[in-house]
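step=encode ok
step=design start
structure_in=
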């Protein structure tokens, strides 16, 4: 099955390591992905999480774009309520100027953190409680296109550098809200299956059925984002997946910290209820050998009519993470860049 595959990275911080090393691991993985033929490399925005180093995707986008040559690099995503639309427009125009036609602007409406941290980011209770994402997105587009009405207070403000376009905008979501909005505005859409798997098929259908063509997207383009942990055998993949299952369990219980190793998870004093929760959390992820992953994943791709697969892989060992991505690339017949050059 020849199919485009991309990477979503949160820069996980393994226990016994550091945030600096996690970010260097991301750069190393991006170099690998660039040569291996992956389509995109997107960086997430998370705050106040001890196990995730990816807080400022625009900074990492610049670093990774500089270290790669072919792959598109973008945000997965910028959580727009945390930022002034003008600042987002300036940052991504700057990136587009430095790396033309290689930057993606993925936008989300969630805070990417807990409510108290969101308050610290947004500076006021009023901003925290406001549900004005469509208005903020409209403001971002107006800065990008110079379409503020003449009587608008921002009509004389330009997002510099203003001689380069804003990169293509993708809306990220785990419900029907972003799928409907991205369709109406003629944007790309990426659905987070690992957050809300049951809504993937209806959300993708809403997007396709409601899509209005635009200059950036003359036809719909839907990305299915999934969590995959694969290895040479089912048993090895199950072992690797203990780390991300434990991480999701800690998120649910308001705890954070470095990504535990499988050995640390096995040695942890988990209650019977926590063990049951971890087992249920496994269903959010596609775990197993390539054949096992394919058996469950390919029908989902077909049912969602996804145009592209975006893979999040959180395992403790960096070499195992790269190997997992390599197996996914093989599964979907991704052609390495080196082979394309030599043909």
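sequence_out=
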């Amino acid at each position: 099955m020849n199919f485009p595959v991309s990477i979503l990275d949160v820069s996980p911080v393994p226990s016994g390591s550091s945030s600096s090393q996690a970010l260097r691991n991301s750069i190393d993985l991006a170099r690998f992905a660039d040569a291996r033929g992956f389509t995109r490399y997107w960086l997430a925005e998370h705050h106040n999480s001890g196990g995730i180093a990816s807080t400022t995707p625009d900074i990492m986008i610049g670093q990774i774009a500089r270290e790669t040559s072919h792959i598109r690099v973008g945000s997965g995503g910028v959580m727009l309520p945390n930022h002034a639309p003008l600042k987002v427009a300036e940052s991504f125009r700057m990136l587009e100027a430095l790396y033309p036609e290689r930057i993606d602007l993925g936008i989300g409406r969630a805070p990417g953190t807990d409510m108290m941290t969101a308050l610290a980011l947004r500076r006021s209770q009023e901003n925290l409680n406001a549900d004005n994402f469509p208005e903020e997105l409209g403001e971002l587009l107006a800065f990008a296109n110079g379409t503020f009405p003449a009587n608008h207070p921002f009509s004389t403000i330009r997002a510099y550098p203003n001689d380069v376009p804003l990169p293509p905008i993708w809306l990220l979501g785990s419900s029907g809200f972003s799928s409907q909005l991205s369709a109406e505005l003629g944007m790309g859409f990426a659905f987070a299956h690992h957050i809300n798997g049951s809504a993937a098929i209806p959300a993708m259908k809403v997007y396709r059925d409601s899509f209005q063509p635009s200059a950036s997207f003359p036809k719909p383009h839907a990305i299915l984002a999934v969590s995959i942990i694969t290895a040479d055998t089912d048993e090895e993949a199950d072992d690797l997946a203990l780390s991300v299952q434990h991480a999701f369990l800690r998120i649910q219980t308001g705890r954070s910290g470095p990504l535990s190793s499988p050995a640390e998870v096995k040695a942890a004093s988990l209650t019977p209820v926590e063990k049951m929760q971890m087992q249920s959390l496994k269903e959010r992820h596609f775990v197993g050998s390539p054949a096992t992953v394919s058996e469950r994943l390919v029908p989902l791709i077909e049912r969602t009519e996804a145009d592209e697969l975006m893979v999040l892989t959180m395992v403790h060992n960096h070499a195992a993470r790269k190997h997992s991505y390599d197996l996914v690339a093989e599964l979907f017949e991704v052609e390495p860049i080196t082979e394309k050059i030599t043909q």
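step=design ok
step=annotate ok -> Confidence is low (pLDDT under 50) at residues 339-343.
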